[in-house]
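ok trying this again, last paste got cut off
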Amino acid sequence: MTAAKIKSVQCCSPTGLHHMSYKEWGDENNPEVLICAHGVTRVGDDFDVLARSLSDHYRVICPDVVGRGRSGKLLDPRLYGIPQYVSDMVTLIARVSAHSEVAKIDWFGTSMGGLIGMALASLPGNPIRKLVLNDIGPTLDPAALQRIGDYIGQELRFPSFETAATFVREVSLSFGEHSDEQWKKLASDVLRQQDDGQWVRHYDMGLAIPFKSATAESARADEAALWAIYDGIRCPTLLIRGANSDLLSRETANIMANRGPRATLVEIPNVGHAPTFIHDDQIAIARAFLVGA
């Protein structure tokens, strides 16, 4: 199995240019492309196991959304949001399609990555053939959003990797059961060591600014807009819900199964927000929908 390649593409925002890093698995000439987009404080490395597994069928592209991981930052942090992310992904798709005849792509999106996929899949002329939404939908629990917003805004420093990894594990227990080695990787993917030896989380603290500026009124408007986006999706859609999720309720998931693209709903037991798709049984769910038996 060939190792993944780290590449990047230059993207544009209203205040300037930035680079978006992405990890590419599989044959770069394969026209069958799957893009995997991560959650709000995570990175493309989250999909290493899933991407390796599916690279027998796909060329798998796992970007670090701007402001995270190996990617650059936005000059104006108020622009961290779905419209900018969708614009960046259109640029990424153009790059991916440049040297092979890619007519359609499939999309796997966890949490925020699912919102990006929803928005892209709702646009006229979009290239998405199949869409997987991992524990995300138009109606999101306000308390869970507050929890995530508070977590993002904590500017924390740790004296050692071990203490930082313990923190990441404790705040990520809703991911479900994992081995010590899996927890270590989940932590190492989102931590970096500074020149002073301290360990910090690998994202721009400016990500918290849009969360802090949200109001009850703007949240209602965002929810209405997301439902309109969801209802505009026409491609086959798989909705994954962690059975213990505090972000995506079972009620919302059931509504999503009965309107818009009428997503196929699968619940994963003993997991909250959000399933990591590191485990074989979870990967099998994605493969069955995306590739078939």
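PB: full thing came through this time. The first strand starts at residue 5 and ends at 13.
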